[in-house]
Write a structure and sequence with these properties.
Layout lengths: L5 H14 L3 H17 L7 E6 L6 E8 L5 E6 L5 H29 L6 E9 L3 E5 L4 E5 L14 E12 L2 E7 L3 H11 L1 H4 L3 E9 L3 E8 L6 H6 L4 H9 L4 E6 L4 H8 L5 E7 L4 E6 L4 H5 L4 H10 L2 E6 H16 L1 E5 L5 E5 L6 E2 H10 L25 H24 L8
Parallel strand pairs: 6-8, 10-11, 13-14
Antiparallel strand pairs: 1-2, 2-3, 4-5, 4-7, 5-6, 7-8, 9-10, 12-13, 15-16, 16-17
Helix pairs in contact: 2-3, 4-7, 8-10, 11-13
């Protein structure tokens, strides 16, 4: 190449500005490519380095000799006579390659770190394995596993999707999106509800069965703002926009509560919960509802109970008042069948016949006196006394009392059910 080549440098600078690539990056790539081109010429040195003057554009090739440690011991100018022609051809190839690489890098950087964002694309291609969405500069992949069951994507239709992963490949970024991710519902509400995008209202939890139903729990950082009302909108306008984008998927918006009892009651809406009993050790919540609310609380094929459990993080066991009364009566009968035995500490304890947890005489007396639960016999033995091992106290009265209490509770539930109008159950 000629001693000076200002036109070459000007063209290089123009390309760098248009494609967003630095001139130094192009010069380094060109120098490395020219070394490879030089080594293919006859009589080329085994080791060589190419220099490109950034001021004049002059290109020189220097052959090198290296010792065993890789140190340069001799260097000489070995630029071929016709190297200008080789350099021009190589420069064209290298620049085109670097432009393609730079464009891929720019596309990747545009979407890298955007996992969790929502994008809008146009359906380009769809088959049994995946659907391609055109996002403008790149295409997004919507795999079968991330699609909503029975949802069909027509060619040319506009579609919103949730970015789950951005991969860097040799052909450019591969963006994997989802239509079934719960995060899609959150992002759609952010677009429709200004209070969420501004941080006044937060979506604390979400549970979704794609294509069927979603529950979200919302919280307000401003006592003057109703989080549920903000998300639902005037006459349901805001939640309707989200439902339309999800093609008719039903959405329940419930208030979040730090108290697990209140949160579970809200999570099972539209059913009305009478009582919630928590077992911290097993993480189970026993929910008691009126008899006529049982099917509504469980939902179609158990959907309402499943979503409530995912939303709250508790295992939920729903019982009607009649079922609970019958179980308590059965437990009282089982407790009545047992005997007094001596434990390892030498204390007398009542051991139920069904292998339940043994109860000491002192604890039995306390429960009987509190009236919280019917004891398995008419009276507990004296705490200080030692009942005879194997002897069972009379049980008839205790069982009769427990059953009577259960029947009375069932009767009250039936009367209340007749008094209250039966609400229309939602599908």
């Amino acid at each position: 190449m000629s001693t000076t080549n200002f036109e070459f440098l000007d063209a290089l600078g123009q390309i760098a500005r248009d494609k967003g690539i630095s001139v130094e990056t192009l010069l380094d790539a060109l120098a490395n490519a020219l070394v490879a081109a030089y080594k293919r010429t006859p009589g080329a040195a085994e080791e060589a380095v190419v220099t490109i003057d950034p001021e004049s554009g002059e290109i020189r090739v220097y052959g090198q000799e290296l010792d065993e440690d890789g140190t340069v011991t001799r260097e000489w100018d070995d630029t071929p006579d016709d190297f200008g022609r080789i350099a021009a051809q190589t420069a064209k190839q290298v620049i085109l390659q670097r432009i393609r690489e730079a464009e891929r890098d720019l596309k990747y950087e545009e979407y890298a770190g955007r996992e969790g964002d929502i994008v809008t694309g146009i359906v380009q291609q769809t088959d049994n394995r995946y659907t391609l969405l055109d996002l403008g500069k790149v295409e997004a992949l919507l795999p079968q596993a991330e699609q909503v069951p029975y949802e069909r994507y027509e060619h040319g239709a506009r579609l919103k999707a949730y970015i789950v992963e951005v991969r860097k490949t040799t052909k450019g970024p591969q963006i994997v999106v989802s239509r079934s991710h719960p995060g899609l519902v959150k992002r759609l509400f952010e677009l429709e509800v200004p209070e969420i995008s501004s941080g006044v209202v937060e979506i604390r939890a979400a549970a979704r069965e794609p294509g069927h139903r979603t529950k979200i729990a919302v919280w307000s950082n401003d006592p003057n703002v109703d989080p549920v009302g903000a998300c639902v909108g005037a006459r349901g306008s805001r939640v309707r926009m989200v439902t339309n984008e999800l093609r008719g998927e039903r959405i329940d918006v419930v208030p979040f509560a730090d108290d697990p009892v209140e949160f579970i009651q809200a999570a099972l809406q539209p059913a009305r919960v009478r009582e919630v009993r928590l077992d911290e050790q097993t993480g189970t919540a026993t929910v008691v509802v009126s008899d006529y609310q049982l099917s509504l609380a469980i939902g179609k094929e158990g959907q309402n109970a499943r979503l409530g459990a995912r939303l709250t993080g508790w295992r939920i066991d729903i019982k009607s008042e009649t079922q609970l009364a019958e179980e308590e009566a059965n437990e009282a009968e089982e407790w009545a069948e047992g005997e007094w035995v001596e434990n390892e500490a030498g204390e007398m304890v009542w051991q139920p016949a069904e292998g339940g947890e043994a109860v000491s005489a002192a604890e039995w007396s306390r429960v009987a006196d509190s009236g919280d639960e019917a004891p398995p016999a008419e009276a507990a033995p004296e705490v200080g006394g030692a009942p005879e091992v194997g002897a069972a106290p009379p049980v008839e009265a205790a069982v009769v009392d427990a059953v009577a209490v259960a029947e009375a509770e069932v009767g009250e539930a039936e009367v209340e059910a007749e008094a209250d109008p039966v609400p229309e159950a939602e599908a």
